[in-house]
Amino acid sequence: MKKSGDDSFDKVGCDASEAGFVVLDRAGSGKAHDKCVDVAGTEYVYYDKGDGAICVGIKGADVAHAVNTAQKGECVTDTSVNDVKKVDCGDPTAVYRVLARLDTTSFMSDSKCSSVAGTQTSYSYVLKAKEGIGSIGSGVVFCLIAKDSDPTRTVDNANIGDCLKKSGQNEVVVTPCTSPDADYKILSSQIDESFCKNIPGSHATYTYTRPGDILPKALCLGSAR
Questions:
Q1: CB atoms within 10 A of CB 52
Q2: Predicted confidence band at 91 (pLDDT cuts at 50, 70, 90)?
Q3: pLDDT by residue (tens digit) across 110-140?
Q4: Under a CB-based contact definition with an 8 Å cutoff, are residues 14 and 59 in contact?
Q5: Domain that holds residue 17
Q6: Is the dihedral angle over the CA atoms 121, 127, 128, 129 positive or is it negative?
Q7: For the chain: N or C, fewer Cβ within 10 A?
Q8: How far is residue 181's CA from residue 166's CA, in Å, rounded to a whole number?
Q9: For the chain, what percent of residues have pLDDT higher than 90?
Q10: Residue of higher predicted confidence among 7 and 220
Q11: Do 37 and 120 have their domain in common?
Q12: Which of 146, 163, 185 represents a domain boundary (last residue)?
C-alpha cells in the first residue's frame, strides 16, 4: 500500500517502490484480535465496507519487537526516543518495565496511569485513524517503572510519617525510618512547596507529579532521626 493524502491509502504491489505500508490483519468480532492495537506493528487503523477494521503497519518494520504488544511484566526501551521497542528485560537496551497496559484514546492518553501505584512515567501508543469514524485515535497506555525498581517503594506510595532516601540525582524512594540510609521523614503533603515553611521541622521539600495527574504534590521533609 502507499499513502494517498493525509488519511487514506492506495493499493499497490508489495514489490512496488512506492509501497511503504502493509496490511497486517483485520481485527474485530470473530477475528484473532478484537482491536488493531493488539496486532504487532499496527500504526494506522481504517474502516471500509468489509468485516472488521484494517490494521496497517509500516512495510519492513520489526514486528517481533513491536512495542504495542508489550504486556505487564515485560520491558521496553527508552521512551524518550522515537523508535521504542519491546525487548527482553535482560537486554542491555531495556529501560522500563510495564506495570500496567490500559486502553486509552488520544485525549489525555496517560491519565489512567495515575491510579497505578509505582508508575514513574508513561508511554502512549495511539493509532492514527482516518478522519470521521475513529478520528479520536484509540490505543494503549503503558504505565512504566525503571526496570529494576521496586514499585512498592516509589515516592507515590509514601505516607506522612514514612522515610525517604536519595536514589539518583533527583529521585527518592521509600525506606524504613530505622534504616541507616534514611535521609528524610515526610512531615506533610502540600499543593505547593511554599507551604512547607510553615511546617515545624521541615527543612527540605520534594515535589513530583504522577503521570496522568495535573497538579504536582509537594512533600515537606524533616530529619529522619
A1: 18
A2: very high
A3: 788 988 999 999 999 988 766 544 455 678 9
A4: yes
A5: 2-146
A6: negative
A7: C
A8: 8
A9: 59
A10: 220
A11: yes
A12: 146
How many angstroms separate the CA atoms of 79 and 67, rounded? 10
Q: Are residues 99 and 169 in the same domain?
A: no
> Helical H runs in the chain?
none
pLDDT digits (tens, 9 = 90+) for 50-67: 677 889 999 989 999 999
Q: Is 57 exposed, middle or buried (0-12, 13-18, 19+ CB in 10 A)?
A: buried
Q: Quick one: 70 and 178 in the same domain?
A: no
> Do 64 and 130 lie in a common domain?
yes
Give CA angle at 158 (154, 160), nearest 5°.
Answer: 160
Residues 6+ away with beta carbon under 8 Å from 145: 96, 97, 99, 118, 119, 120, 151, 154
Alpha carbon 192 to its chain centroid, in Å, reads 26
Count of alpha carbons within 13 Å of 91, Cβ hemisphere only? 16
If 0-12 CB within 10 Å is exposed, 13-18 middle and 19+ buried, where does residue 149 land? middle
- Per the listing, cell 501508543 goes with 125
Q: What is the mean pLDDT of the chain?
A: 89
Query: Does residue 90 sit in the same domain as residue 136?
Result: yes
CA 177 to chain centre: 31
Report the alpha-carbon distance of residue 163 to residue 78 in Å, rounded.
30
